[in-house]
Amino acid sequence: MKRTPFQMAFHRRMTAMEKTLLAIIVLYVGFVALRSATFLSAATFFDLARSGAAITILALGVLIVFVSGGIDVSFPAVAIVSGYSAVLISRALGVDNLMFITLSAITIGALLGSVNALLIHFYRLPTLIVTLGTASVFHGAMAILLGMKTYTRADVPKSMLDFGGARLFTLDINGSQVGLTVFVPVVVAVGVLTWFLLYRTRIGRSVYAMGSNEESASRIGMGLLKTRLFVYMYVGGLSGLAGIVYFSNLAYINPAALIGTELAVIAAVVIGGAKLTGGEGTILGTLLGVVLWQLFQNTLIHLGLDSSFNDLFFGGVLILILGFIYYRQRQANKRALVFAAS
Amino acid sequence: MTSSASPLLKARDLHISFGGIRALRGVDLEIGRGEIRCLAGENGSGKSTFTKIVSGVYSPDSGEIEFDGEPVTWHHPKDAVAAGIQVIYQDLSLFEHLTVGENIAINHMLQDRTPFVNRRRMRRIAREQLERVGVELDLDAPVSSLSMANRQIVAICRALSMDARLLFMDEPTTALTGREVGRLLNIVLELKRRGLSIVFISHKLDEVFRVADSISVFRDGLKVGDFTAAELDENALATHMTGREVRYERYHREQESAEPVLTVENLSRTGHFEDVSFALRPGDIVGLTGLLGSGRTEIALSLFGLNKPTGGAISIAGAPVKITAPWDAMKHGIALLPEDRQTQGLFGKQSIAVNASATMLDRILSKVRTLSRRKEVELADRVVSEMHVNNKRIETAVSNLSGGNQQKVVIGKWLFRNPRVFILDSPTVGIDIGSKAEIYEQIHRLAREGMAVLFISDEAEEIVANCNRVLVMHEGHVVQTFEEDDVAKDTFKDDLIAVISDPEAEEASAQAVPVGAGAGLPAAGITDAGIEAQK
Questions:
Q1: pLDDT, tens digit (0-9, with 9 covering 90-100), for A274-288
Q2: CA dist., res. A272 & res. A278, Å (int)
Q3: What is the pTM of this model?
Q4: By the CB < 8 Å criterion, does B297 face chain A?
Q5: Would you call B67 helix, strand, or coil by DSSP?
Q6: ipTM score over 0.90, yes or no
Q7: Contact B106/A205, CB-based, under 8 Å?
Q8: Domain map of chain B by residue range?
Q9: Cα–Cα distance measured from residue B267 to residue B277, given in angstroms and rounded to the nearest whole number
Q10: Is B117 close to A201, i.e. CB distance below 8 A?
Q11: Which of B1, B179, B301, B427 has the fewest CB atoms found within 10 Å of its own CB?
Q12: Is-contact B326 B304, C-beta < 8 A?
């Protein structure tokens, strides 16, 4: 059996979804590059990396929830609530330290996530319903307890401004300075950590097992509560981190931001191959899904199209790819005379 | 057998009730070391409850369990697992999206102290277990890509990985083809030879008779008795299981018309079946049998528009028709009772009324062409009373009915469409003996009234009781046809079993039917002689 370098590194083959996405991204980049001379430049890609960082972190959290067989729509609320609270704590205590702010946000996010996990576990409620509810509760509680004041650049903690402005390296291109954001190593670290947790730890394998078949998981004595706590605290913690990255990038703190982006992030994860039925989904697919979304979001301007075409294109691609892949799956099932829903 | 040594498991006077229903009423059971025991009994007789008590899922209200000579009390299934008791449930409880290796080693992974996955160790555990059962599988393949037989192997390996000493297998052969059953039984015998005790819970006694050392029959929460395979035949067993003499009325066609309603000529579907021809007359109950995977279900699906044929012709009342979708089939008066009533035949959470009217929505319209609740109720009441469904309250969700009553609803929902041809695919799988008799009666009544029935089944007993003509399939071909005269013979059942279990011999010499039940399965490497030798 011949193994590709990809197989050797990841012990698996690329999924149909990943291949298709990769092909679409390459084609799209090639197409835009032909139409616009300014597109293929370091500046464009550095900009994409900066603006896409927070979304990528959120998407990786969402992926874990999907794999566990759930769906979470509260993560933007968690990101905002924990990011905003962390900033307020920092201001109240006068501690302007990035590590402190970030850890506070992650801790708050994880705590909010544990609320989700406990509600889901003990009330046996569908995850969508719980997180729909908690999204409003979290955000509403924040508005009442902490207020909805926005903070402009002058009031943003300096350590966050520094974080948002820091560059790994800077290139001098035709007299203008373009640099790669330090968000990149953060996102890479989150990606590696997520991969490691999912594939190389017992708890990560339990997430896949629970998502594949919850009943079987409990029959072999797997702790469902523990697994759920891990899943929702992890996505909560990542949301907290994403909140800080997001605010640092904008240098503007708006407690109404991000709300409403949940479906776009979920769409990016779904296009990457994660299934609502659980047990399926890959990190590579998720990353490709986010990249495609970011590309559409930020580069349609190079084609002379308004960015509102993004939704149209992304939605179109989503339906086409998923339609095609599920159609092939159905045909295969039909040939094998499998009529059960898969 | 190790009758001299102390038994591995000794259960004494087990009692348990659930909400006033006494599920077990004093069961004593001993399982020897290296013994294969079959538990038989109708649904609700207590055999599953017994299994759950022994494996620590339920705690008995009273009674004692001794395992390996020590009195034990399980507080949690984990305790039983630690002692070496493993249960493979009918659904196998595997994780489809994890790999073969991970599925086999997952119990070990859960027990390990380390929070990390040690891939090398995982693969080693998996490989060791696969070697023990002598099967090669790709450790990195996801379980979702495996056949049912190989999934069964993975489940067995997972159980073995935990140093199982007593292994329960709940209906392990239901989803397997004949050849696969042979392989599975071989593996089970090999495990027994190494000292493992195995308990089969099964309806399909012909298979279990081949390997089981003894059979314990349960009825109404009591153990009726322990028997050796030699002491029982299917009739005696049925009597023990139901507590009464069960005789199925045999069916004889009385209709005079010889005009076929459905004619199938040289029907083929590449890879599924080839060159199949037969005709159904009014009042015919034609049996279509052969091992699982022989192509019988595939034919049923083709006749119902769900599996497009690649060649041949189908005619209804002499006129050629094309059936490309279920509604085409319905238009021509064909009805199908699918193989799996849970996923294909019923809307489980919906009421009897909704299920019964699902095929007849056009008959329950009001004047303004909306659905009439009153007509739906009338229709459902008729289905319930004509089919003798035990539960007369039509608002009951069908998932709360017993298997037999569910099946009556599935049959009933077609009745008032007056189908000319009714295809029944394995209509009594998982249905207790009492309900079986009632369902047969209904089928006979329909046929007497002039319906043509295609009856798919792999139980010889059932075919004999219901069919006036029989086709036996093997690997997509009809290898033997029994006409009415053949079916009327006294030796019919033995002839039939011989063909089903050794169809290749049949293909070789088209007539000389070897008489005598229990010939070895084809090419499965398992023969009675072999089994005897291993016992």
A1: 988 888 889 999 999
A2: 14
A3: 0.77
A4: yes
A5: strand
A6: no
A7: yes
A8: 9-242, 262-333+418-529
A9: 6
A10: yes
A11: B1
A12: yes
